Amino acid sequence: MSNQWQLxxxxxxxxxxxxxxxxxAPFFAGLDRINALAEQSEGFVWRxxxxxxxxxxxxxxxxxxLLVNMSVWADVDSLFAYVYRSDHAGFLAGRREWFERxxxxxxxxxxxxxxxxxxxxxxxxxxxxxxxxxxxxxAFTFKTRFAPPPPPPSS
Length: 155
What we know:
Largest sheet: 4 strands, antiparallel
Strand content: 15-25%
Number of helices: 5
Order of helices and strands: EHEEHHHEH
Number of strands: 4
């Protein structure tokens, strides 16, 4: 794989209750541990961080219960290993308790040039694209993966 490309991801979730409510307390209590695990994982490059150590204070829409998480990884396999083969998998199991079931796509992957840090608007646009058109090279999922673009031709 070319090191000219890295994998960006966005995932969103709508909390069942606002921060401070006992129903979502385990989610907020585990964030620092899960974020540290991500940062220590092979292939981790970057994650969106707000005013604290997470992105939970960033509200990209008028819905204050909608949370956004974004990160960049070296490749799909690194992100997959973190999400499904680390302690994150157990944490992920609580998603149904803490977040409402969303209609449509809630996670999207796409390739970015190495060093690029995607904006929230860029991530939401990829999520929208995936939801409207299905998996393409523009936005895809773990289930339907696309390889990074080829390197530009040499001059």
